Task: inverse folding
């Protein structure tokens, strides 16, 4: 799955009527780096941080790491946006 973390679609409010392209490369990479254990998560955090507007290719294990972890700690906008993808 190719994801563009440099232009990640995040809802602008609870109504979920409008998506805003947000650069979450540093914030999301840093969040995974600080909050998700394991070497694979560490490498994923670096991969997200270094990603460009062309996006980054994620394997199934990386997608699973994000899906499992994002719903536990991240603000509501990020899990909602991730479920939209």
Result:
């Amino acid at each position: 799955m190719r994801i563009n973390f440099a232009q990640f679609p995040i809802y602008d409010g609870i109504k979920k009527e409008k998506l805003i392209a947000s650069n979450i490369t540093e914030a999301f990479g840093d969040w995974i780096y600080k909050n998700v254990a394991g070497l694979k998560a560490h490498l994923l955090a670096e991969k997200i941080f270094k990603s460009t507007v062309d996006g980054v290719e994620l394997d199934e294990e990386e997608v699973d790491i994000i899906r499992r972890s994002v719903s536990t700690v991240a603000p509501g906008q990020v899990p909602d946006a991730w479920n939209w993808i």
